[in-house]
Amino acid sequence: SSGNCLLMDEPTSHLDLPAVEELESLLESFPGTLVIVSHDRYFLKGLANRVFELNNGHLKVNDCSFEQYLASYNHGDLKNTLQNEIKIKEKRRRQEEHRHQQVEQKRLRKIKKNLEMIEEEITSKEKFIAHIENKLSDPNRYGDHKQLADLGIELKEAREELADLLRAWEEVINRLEQ
Fold first, then answer.
1. Can you say whether the dihedral through the CA atoms of 84, 89, 95, 98 is positive or negative?
2. Nearest to residue 81, comparing CAs of 55, 63, 49, 50?
3. pTM, whole model, 2 decimals?
4. For 70-104, what is each residue's pLDDT tens digit?
5. Is 12 helix (H, G, I), strand (E, B) or coil?
């Protein structure tokens, strides 16, 4: 059986004027449904009795001829729709910007909290190192070589841990500045 729906995408784009007129004449007598995508307004005026408007991903069905659609467009009905869509886009852009700011603030709070923890550990480690250095400089301990050796090892480990903490602190500061 023959089909009752004809889909066409830019059917007049490569035709001369007589061919377009012949195509229009043939399509007017077509008994089924025509779905035409075209930028040729003159061609659409004689054929379209319903206009589907696709704008920013939204489909709007206009139950009117193409001429009526153009008239309403010229009188501002569609202009208002476009302005509303622009407002909606702007609102979405602001919402997205706000969400991005919230994510960034959360990231910064997390980095600052991490920085505070590292700084507390650095302060604690520096106090511990000062305590060991005080023990090492105590003249009463000079005779106990085993205890001095243990304190020396402990001091060396504490200084290495402090160096690691300072590197971690520097990394966090760099992330904070990004």
1. negative
2. 55
3. 0.46
4. 777 665 555 666 677 778 888 888 999 999 999 99
5. coil
